[in-house]
Amino acid sequence: MTMDFLRPATWAEALEAKAERPGAVPVQGGTDVMVELNFDVRRPDALLDLNRVAALGEWSAEEDGRLRVGAGVTYARLIAELGDRLPGLAQAARTVGSPQIRNRGTVGGNLGAASPAGDGHPPLLAAGAEIEVESAARGVRMIPAEEFYLGVKRSALEPDELIRAFWTRPAGGPQYFSKVGTRNAMVIAVCSFALALHPAERRAGTGIGSAAPTPRRAVAAEEFLAAELDWDTGRLDPGLPRRFGELAAGAASPIDDVRGTAAYRRHAVAVLARRTLTWAWHDLWAAGPHEGPHDGPRGRVRRPGGPVAPGDPGDPEKPRREAG
Amino acid sequence: MNGETDITGADGVPDPVTADLRLSVNGVPRPVTVDTRETLLDTLREHLGLTGAKKGCDHGQCGACTVLVDGRRALSCLTLTVTADDVEIVTVEGLADGDALHPLQAAFIENDALQCGYCTPGQLCSAAGALAEAADGWPSAVTPDLSAPPRLDETEIRERMSGNLCRCGAYPGIVAAVGQVAR
């Protein structure tokens, strides 16, 4: 078995190559694809190396106010360059793999693999991101994140298409990502949850990871928040985060596997949802109830809840190790 | 790329697709012909005689193969050599300045930061990368204040070195050594 190695220098060449060789596996950081190659899980007849396509490594602020982040922007750069505007995604990025992995891996690769456990997915769902894909034959398609994930490691990407970028608005309010794992580095999430408050629209977005065949929104939980959160005074009824957690858990359809049981995951999703809501709401109103919700992201950036050890999800609603 | 897919060797097995590259390793140009499936780790060890980087797990879990690529730490087992022909690679063999040890190497010795030594080349390259990242102001998952330059205390060092495993458990010495150089 041999393997052709395709190295387009431009995006147009990359699209042509993918049209000619739809079976070619795109590779950017290699942190996912290479694991499968090294262990002979996959024998692609061609690899399509996208590292020379400079445009993929760029991000820009677009006219409609959104950020367009190229599929080749690494997690490390996303944290350093966009952490202030995309705090939820940056929190998730800081928990991906290890520092070495974050220096190479990309959200584009996370999307291409479409694993239900990918850390990048829940924040994209919570923020309402869109995925820009393109083919030589049919041009550009914009796919809302919630329509992108079709099944375990299956996405809406056609065989002749490549992921160009994701588009998302800079955070209009507090965002949090939290996940459960045995340690921070080098573990696949047992489950994860992302929350984004959108004060201007008086609603919240959600994303559940690793607790269903695909990353998915907790739609009923979002509707509950839109109806019940008190955006005028900031008062948070203690029962509200708990109910929100229950509804989020109801949106999950987890399985038993080596990392955890379905029952544990459902319980943990409820806890993560409850906590992220409490943190985000407190951030939003920390300046005092009379000031009301902020329109922009907060200046003070709080570190996220971070991964939580399994069996420990009943702790107080406080970001772990926050005080450091 | 000089490979053609359907050439079949005398034994009936297709010849590998190969590529002629000119790598830059530890500041020295290294021309090499590699199978397109080859990882940078295998090229360093098998073709270039640089056996410092170790194959611990071969799937990005252990960090023993960590090298610096354009100054940033990367896992050579997850890097295809064909993608590395336009970057600067530094391995543990390139850290010292002649006979003068890199400060991290000296600190590892001073602090007993190793027992069997198998993970040490990866730990050293990773530590060099971690110090550069901190100097550039990159936060980690445990950085309490994202607006201030990170301070490399024990918690920060442990998190930033979390991509490198040490089965001997020399972590206290490793943390002490990295901390000594960070200060």
Automatic annotation (TrEMBL), chain B:
PROSITE patterns assigned to the protein according to its UniProt record, in alphabetical order: 2FE2S_FER_1, 2FE2S_FER_2
SUPFAM superfamilies in the record: 2Fe-2S ferredoxin-like, CO dehydrogenase ISP C-domain like
Keyword match Aminoacyl-tRNA synthetase: no
Keywords of this entry: Iron, Metal-binding, Oxidoreductase
Name recorded for this polypeptide: Oxidoreductase
Gene3D superfamilies from the UniProt entry: 3.10.20.30, [2Fe-2S]-binding domain (1.10.150.120)
Residues of the 2Fe-2S ferredoxin-type domain: 19-95
One Pfam assignment: Fer2
UniProt organism field: Streptosporangium pseudovulgare
